[in-house]
Design goal:
The chain has 15 helices and seven strands. The chain has about 325 residues and is of the alpha/beta class.
Amino acid sequence: MPMPIRPRLSTPSDSPAAKAVPPASSIDASVHVLAHRKSSSHATPPFFIRVKFVVLGLPGVWVALIPIKLFKVYRLFMRPQMARFTRLAFLSREVCNYSFHHTDTSTRRLAVLLANHLGGISVEEVLRYCGEVDRIPLLQAIYQAARNQDKVLRNLTDRELRVGRQLLYYCLVRVLKPRLVFEAGTAHGIGSLLLLHALKLNAEEGQAGRLITVDMNPNAGKLLKQLPPDYQALVEFELGHSEMKLAHAPAEIDLFFHDTANIPDHESRHYELLQKKLSARGVICTTWGMGGQLAEFSLRQGRRYFEFTNEAHEHWCNDTLGISIPSTTTNLQVLQ
Ligand SMILES: C[S@@+](CC[C@H](N)C(=O)[O-])C[C@H]1O[C@@H](n2cnc3c(N)ncnc32)[C@H](O)[C@@H]1O
């Protein structure tokens, strides 16, 4: 049966006369006047807006808009980045593996992200781990000693040690307390230094772990040569191809870092190998999250995946790191 249409009761305010005349009470009157002004301004947009929409409707106008679009992209994205590129080209010695300070927002976002996804840890605790990184005089001392001894290192690195994407590496080790960390791609060893320091603090808190770090460049790992014995004891530096070394690694990796090269097949082969090498609570982190290899692997394996894009302070380098974790976060906390 069709529903009966209820007649709309007309109220005094519906009549045209009532619309024109404000109600008697002063508050009601002012509200009424405002509403009246608003509705009349919607009814008749200003002259230039009407002209604009007439012009925008002309055929082929989108072609004429190309310079405006280019200018907007230039002003919003290219000009700020070009200024940073130019400044750093002259002021920084780095040609790859860029280092930078995180903005405060970037650090806070990192803490929120890890607390949300890993579970069992608060944002404040992750922020405390982030703060530890700024108070490691040993790292500075090792870095400066290595630079003083090596001309090549001096020409390729800046005087100040800045912890860029390695801040995430450090926090992952502090949060997850891994027993075995595998870093594919050592370079000078800045990441390894941070990983080792996190492992050392974990060990002091009763959760020991060690690091295997691999690079095929015979000049890699220069910072590791400066390590004091108690740090040396926690690390094995292996020279060779990361896939070969991973194939021979123990099948108990709790945390794997893919930080060699942005080559999709090479990255995917790491993940295929990791199916036999990762422990039940194993976590994978890639520097090249935007490539999508780790996201696809996680999808196929029923793992959870999330990304972190840092915001660098006065630097153009914005890395997107990918993190793949087992589908149940409880696995991560097994040993904690
Ligand atoms: C981005 S850097 C590593 C940065 C380092 N993890 C850090 O945090 O300071 C990449 C390194 O991976 C090494 N590399 C590239 N392809 C490799 C491979 N197939 N096997 C081993 N090392 C490789 C390069 O020699 C280079 O030193």
